[in-house]
Amino acid sequence: MAALLEQIQQMTERKNTAGEPAHETSGFGVPKTLSPHHFIVEVPRGNSQPILITEDLGNSASSTDCDVLDRVVLPRTHWTEIRGPVKRTFNERLKAHGLATSQWKVGTNPVDRMLGKELCVLAWGIELLERERVAYALRNWLGLRAEERWWLFDMVAATVGGPEGKGRGWRMALHYALGDTPEAVIRNARHGGRDKLRSTGQDTLGLFDGDKE
């Protein structure tokens, strides 16, 4: 019996050191369980068709009549700008939790529930942007903490979280917060009349010189 237990322990240690995933997943971190709550990124063939991001409520759906929600339709050009950095960011998070990494492919791409929320925040923020400003919005999104992205998703999803909500409410706020924030500018102080004051031997005007008691 002791020999059997030792053999099991050795097998477990070898498994842990082999870098195997903590549990089986599909796509970007979606657990292989019955009807998990997750997001889906639909990537059609070709280079011009838009990307559709949906939320599959899975077992958390309150009604079987509405268990999939369309969240955002993203122009293909914008998707091309963000897909690489987003993939790297998500894979780093998955590896940190001992989960298998993934990559985008043509067709259906499952995405973990929390990662999907973060992706929607970025997609909502860039959907109306000019393509040349997408990279700037991406940098701002990368600068947010995961908890901040989740909070922003909840704010948008509660009011204007569907494709018809484009350009409204919190969704428009994301547009400005991520993509229309002006570059930081260091302003130089202009030269005023201080030199003229110094020429009179005074650093400040004696406003109350005539009010002596």
Kindly summarize this structure in a few lines:
By secondary structure, this protein is an alpha+beta fold.
Characterize the structure shown.
By secondary structure, the protein is an alpha+beta fold. The protein has one domain (25-185). Helix content is 43%, strand content 14%. It contains 7 helices and 6 strands. α2 runs parallel beside α4 (134-142) and α3 (113-126) packs antiparallel against α4. The chain is globular, with a radius of gyration of 27 Å. It starts with a helix and ends in a 14-residue tail after the last helix. The model is unreliable at 12-18 (pLDDT under 50). InterPro entries: DUF3780. It holds the Pfam family DUF3780.
